[in-house]
Every structure is written in C-alpha cells, then in structure tokens.
Design brief:
With about 600 residues, this protein is α+β, with helices and mostly antiparallel strands.
Length: about 600
C-alpha cells in the first residue's frame, strides 16, 4: 500500500512536464453513473487527459497531466475509502499521450469472460519486481509466462519467457491448455503491462491445478521503474499515444500504422513502403493486389445487400417525380399517365386523393398544370417490392468505371414497383460516398453487361459514345421458331413513347428515326426454338425485343412481346418464373482514361447450350 505522503513524495520528483499515471483496483462498486460523473468532472477541472474504466468489479485508470494536477486529483481520489490504498505506476513524457478525457462504464475492467474468477476475493501471491530480478540474477529455476497479446510481445519480453500466442485476453483460458502438465508443479511467474490481466490469469491458473503461481507486482512498467531493464529484451507496448516505452520509461519513437495498427519503428517509417494513413511495410500490398482485395470486399458487400432483398421489407417509400420539358404543360394526371403508362389512371387518382402525391409538402390536384423542372414526391407507405435475382457480379472495376453482370429479374433503375430492389440502389450502398452513373440500361428481364461511371468526367466521356452509336454491343436471344434466313437487318422505326402497359410499337410515322439491329442465326434447336445473335446499332427502349417480335420471332420467356404479335400485361417477370432469354453478352467502349477500346463480357446463361 502507498500512503498519500509517499505518493506526494513520488509525485514531487523533478521530472518532465507531463506525468502519466496508470492504476487499477478490483473492488465492488455501485452507483456507477454517479461515480462516472464525479470522476469526469474532477479530471476535467484539472485539465487531465486519459481514460477511466468503471465496472461493478472495479476501476482501471490511465491519466496524463502536469505533476500538480495529478497530485490534486489523487488527493481527492484517495478520500474515497474504497480507493485509499490505490497504488499508481508512473512514467513521464514531453507530451500528452491522450487527446481526450473519457470515463466509461464497462461490464468488466479487463475483458476475460470467466465469471468464476473474482480478483477482489482471490489473487495469486504478488512478487515484487526487485525480488524477481534477484531470482533471475541467481539463475533460479522459474517459468516466466507472458499473458499479453501477440502484437504486444513482438516489441519485447523477458529473456526466455513463454507466451500463448493469443490475440485477445479472452483467448487466455483456452490457450492455457498449451502448457505441459509438468508446469503445474513448477514455480510460474506471470506478467503483463501493468498487472491487471494477471489478477484474473493467476486465480484461473490455480483453479486449473497450477500450484506455484506468482504475479509480478505492478507488471512490466513497475519492473522498469524499480529494476530497470535487467533480463528484458526490447520495449513495452502501452495503450496510449506513446505506443512503446523503453526500460527507462521513455517513448521509443515507435508509432502505430493507421491502416493495420502494427507497431512501426522509426526505420519502418523511413521505408518507401510506408505512407501515412494508407499502408506500412507490414501491411503494404502492390496496387494491383490492393485493388483486388478492395474489389473482393466490395463484391461481398454487394452480395450481402442484394441477398437481403432490401426493398422486400415493408418501409416508407418516398419517390421523386421530375417533370421534363417534353411532357410539361399538361395536367398532373395526364403527365403521370405518360410518366409511367403501365400504372392505371385510377391508381394515380387514388394516390392524389389520399394526399400521397405532394409538391413542396403540400397536396396537389389532378387538374393542376405541371411545368418543366417541377418535382413531386410520391409517398408509398408500407412499400413491399417484388423479389429480385440478387446474383450481381463485378466483371471489372477501376477508378473510372464499374462493369457488372446484371442478373434477371433486376431493374437497372428504380421504377414502377421497384426502388431499393434495383441495381443502382444496391450498388450505391456498396460504393459509399460515390454517385454511380449508368452509361446505358438494359431491361429488368435482360441479363448481362452493364457499365457504370464512378466520376462525372468519365460519364461525360462514355455517355456520348452510346448516344452516337459508337459502342459495340452483342446480345444473344433464344426465340420461338426457326428463321429461314441466316442473317437479317431490321431497320423498323420504333415509337418513342410507350403505349398502355409500357410496350413499344413499330412506328408508321415517316418522321420517326429508324432503329437498326443486325441479327445472325446461330443455331436451330429440336424444341422449335433458335439461338440468335443481335448487334444493335441504335439504342431505343426494348429495341431487340420489338424487332424480333416484328420479324415473327418472339423471345422465349418475354412477358410483354408474346408470340403471334400479342402484347402481354406484365412488365417484369417474377423471380421464380422462367427467365426471359435475352442476354447482353459483350460490350466494347473507349475507356475514359486510356482512350483505348476495351471489351467486357458476361458469362453465358444456362439457356445457351
């Protein structure tokens, strides 16, 4: 036990500007919130920095401040009878190793997870540091067991000390089984940084049958203070801004890597493989490896988000409806009918009458005139979206673009019944703090290559290539029937506006621009279907589907463009339905960075033999 006068004498030694104190005590504590408030207020009033942990089993404390401030804190702290005998360990430094003052409530002051160990009632005998030095000087037979974590031991430990290769103290009880049975009859001295871990490790070892267990009193730091560096190799890891102390209790100059938290020596920090906040010689990976690791992590995140079917759990859905110039000047109901033609007019009227469509948070009327640039909000409470195919696959990723293999059914954009269950919404959750811009789109029922831009500059370069028809696209379709031709080009114009139900029709208007798709017969199958290669030059919505239907060869599984020219009532198939056999297999585009043409391919689906 250290008296207040002894502590005062210790604290009055002429040392450097900042005094660092660490101490703990296992003692039953109540009124933890009140204690927390008092200690935080006391420390703040003295401008101390550090961490105090309070739990029902006791207190663990690390403080840094000027000598007089520390002295004033302990004068008050020791007035509590429960803490009157607390013995601090001290070291000095030129700067504060803590940035803040935190007082936290914890379940345990040192995480162990073994309820049967109660250091307040039972501890192993404590061996003074000077006595341990004497034992080692004399060559006395003793087993030294380091109870710290592996990354702490890397910096230093006693000569010939053993350790259990643990990464967290919770692993100690199980790892203890590594020691040979003969060790239970030998004298074992256990040690850690400040002694607190040994308060629990010692009684546990005795319960396990170890007969002669000693705790190094005050831990390594007290040993340095009283016995210096005799029989010690290296330095001692500490859990503050100093990182490591040498046997004279001075910082070694080591730092922690921002990325991997490894301890770095001054030599490590001079290495060309060290970059602040990014990597160090212990975690450095070549750029291509780092990119691959990041890509794999992102792919895993995408799989997890998509598999959760994020839109299929009830939620309040607020959808923005933007008025474009080409359909401005009409009544709201006429605008909405053209905005999403596959939604019945009565549904829009019901939502308007229920106040679920608003402008500037105010209800609107079906007869209101809309103007260009206006934005309405459609509130859909308890939205539950249809299930989707979640198997999104990253085909390519760099700093400029992302290319994915989109499964089906999965909408590219939020639309109709889909919002969160859409490709762009899912990807935005994985590519945080980025606005991915889709360079083109494929139907919800179509699988295959989709390219997205990660930068506005990339989008400005890539998007015009699609608009000018410079991007080479190759699709495969399985159709009903056996074409007589081997190659065929369709130039039929397609109406720019959808009809009721969202389908597109061949246009008879002479002013309508023609749409061009080149078809090639690949194979005729015995079941009456054929495999067709499609290369569209233009990019009208549903172009390949409409052109094949126009030629008399509807796509197998297409819910909208049915055989014999019939139009179906569904836009998107259900996830358990037969797939629509249209696959965007290949896309060739000039890359925005290299300005070279690159080609991306998506694996072929199972319906292509």
């Amino acid at each position: 036990m250290v008296s207040s006068s002894e502590l005062n004498n210790t604290l009055e030694k002429p040392q450097a500007a900042i005094l660092n104190i660490s101490t703990y005590k296992f003692v039953s504590l109540d009124n933890l919130p009140k204690r927390r408030e008092y200690l935080k207020s006391l420390a703040d009033s003295l401008q101390l920095k550090g961490t105090i942990l309070l739990s029902p089993e006791g207190i663990n404390m690390f403080l840094a401040g000027e000598r007089e401030q520390i002295k004033a804190f302990f004068e008050q702290f020791h007035k509590d009878p429960l803490f009157a005998d607390v013995e601090p360990k001290e070291s000095v430094s030129q700067g504060r190793p803590f940035r803040r003052m935190l007082v936290r409530l914890k379940k345990e002051i040192i995480a162990f997870g073994i309820d049967e160990v109660d250091p307040e009632c039972e501890t192993s005998p404590k061996l003074p540091p000077v006595e341990l030095k004497q034992w080692l000087d004399e060559g006395r037979k003793v087993r030294l067991l380091d109870t710290r974590n592996d990354y702490e031991i890397e910096l230093g430990t006693f000569h010939n000390a053993e350790h259990l290769n643990i990464h967290h103290f919770r692993e100690f009880p199980e790892a203890l089984k590594q020691l040979p049975e003969s060790a239970k009859d030998e004298p074992v001295v256990i040690f850690c940084t400040g002694g607190i871990r040994c308060e629990k490790a010692g009684p546990l070892m005795e319960q396990a049958g170890f007969k002669h267990v000693y705790q190094l009193r005050g831990g390594i730091l007290k040993y340095f203070e009283e016995a210096g560096g005799a029989h010690w190799d290296g330095s001692c890891f500490v859990f503050d801004g100093r990182v490591a102390l040498d046997p004279s209790l001075q910082p070694t100059g080591d730092q922690l890597c921002f990325a991997c938290q490894a301890v770095l020596s001054p030599d490590d920090m001079q290495s060309p493989l060290y970059k602040v906040t990014e990597y160090c010689p212990k975690c450095y990976q070549p750029p291509e490896v780092r990119a691959q690791v990041a890509r794999e992590k992102r792919a895993q995140r995408i799989r997890e988000i998509a598999a959760s079917q994020p839109g299929s759990q009830p939620y309040d859905n607020y959808r923005n409806i933007h008025v474009s110039g080409k359909i401005a000047g009409t009544t709201l109901i006429d605008f909405l009918k053209r905005y999403q033609p596959y939604i019945a007019e009565q549904a829009w009227l019901d939502w308007i009458n229920a106040g679920q469509i608003t402008h500037n948070d105010k209800p609107v009327s079906a007869s209101d005139l809309v103007r260009e640039g206006q934005q309405f909000v459609h509130h859909q409470p308890n939205t539950v979206e249809p299930l989707i195919n979640p198997n999104i696959e990253i085909l390519h990723e760099d700093d400029w673009i992302v290319v994915v293999n989109k499964p089906a059914p999965l909408p590219t954009h939020p639309s109709g019944r889909f919002n969160r269950n859409s490709l762009t919404w899912i990807l935005e959750q994985a590519y945080t703090q980025q606005k991915l811009r889709v360079a083109h789109r494929i139907d919800a029922n179509t699988s295959g290559v989709v390219l997205l831009c990660r930068k506005a500059q990339a989008s400005r370069f890539v998007q015009p290539q699609f608009e000018r028809g410079e991007v080479e696209k190759l699709y495969y379709a399985r159709v009903y029937g056996h074409p007589e031709w081997n190659e065929r080009t369709c130039r039929a114009a397609i109406e720019s506006e959808p009809s009721d139900g969202g389908s597109r029709q061949i246009s008879d208007c002479p002013n309508e621009d023609s749409c061009v798709t080149h078809f090639k017969l690949c194979e005729r199958f015995s079941d009456g279907t054929s495999l067709i290669e499609a290369r569209p030059e233009t990019g009208r919505t549903h172009q390949i589907r409409v052109h094949l239907s126009h030629l008399g060869f509807s796509i197998v599984g297409d819910p909208l463009y049915l055989p014999e020219g019939r139009i179906g009532s569904n836009q998107t198939i259900s996830v358990d339905a037969r797939p629509m056999c249209l696959h965007a297999y290949q896309l060739s585009v000039v890359h925005p960075l290299t300005k070279q043409k690159v080609t991306y391919q998506a694996p072929l689906p199972t319906w292509i033999p």
